[in-house]
Amino acid sequence: MPDTIAPADTPFTQAEGRQVIIVNPADFPVQLSALPAGTEAIGTVGVTSFPVVGATGNAWNDVAVAAGGVSSTVNTGGLANVSVYGNVSASGTMSVNVSADGTTFYPSSNSDAISAAGDFYMNFTCGAQYLQLAYSEAATITATISAKG
To answer: What was the pLDDT predicted at 44?
Structure first.
């Protein structure tokens, strides 16, 4: 556990055996209270956001798909939290295929039985870097594969 959380412009004198975490107040969305005398600082730490993958229609974008058709391949970068959503013009089963290399795909256990034309949504955790969708019936489909860390 760190001894101190201090702003980046605080003077620093090394204290042997103590861990000090420093934040830059401009990068940290909370107000830091005044620091007690003798507080030690050694540098700054930035705050980063999680990467996100997924443009609208990246799998299919208003495409007439034949029964058993397969979508474009989407590289999720291996980000684990995956959502698949969009719209279909006919009932059927939307399935997710996975791949480590973007060439050889395998069926996953993620699928959704869509009972009528309309919107659909699936959310799951997946370790595969490349995903593609397959639809069991002929339909016009817009589908997006999104992923975040």
So the answer is: 63
Nearest to 84 by CA among 137, 132, 140, 139: 132
The reported pLDDT for the residue numbered 54 is: 87
Tell me the mean pLDDT in the region 46-63: 82
pTM summary value? 0.67
d(CA 89, CA 136): 12
- Which domains are delineated in the chain? 1-48 (no CATH), 52-148 (2.60.120.260)
pLDDT confidence band for 97 (50 / 70 / 90): very high
Q: 30 by DSSP, 3-state: which?
A: coil
CA atoms within 13 A on the CB side of 147: 22
Contact indicator for 136, 115 with CB cutoff of 8 Å:
no
The closest alpha carbon to 39, from 16, 77, 7, 80, belongs to 7
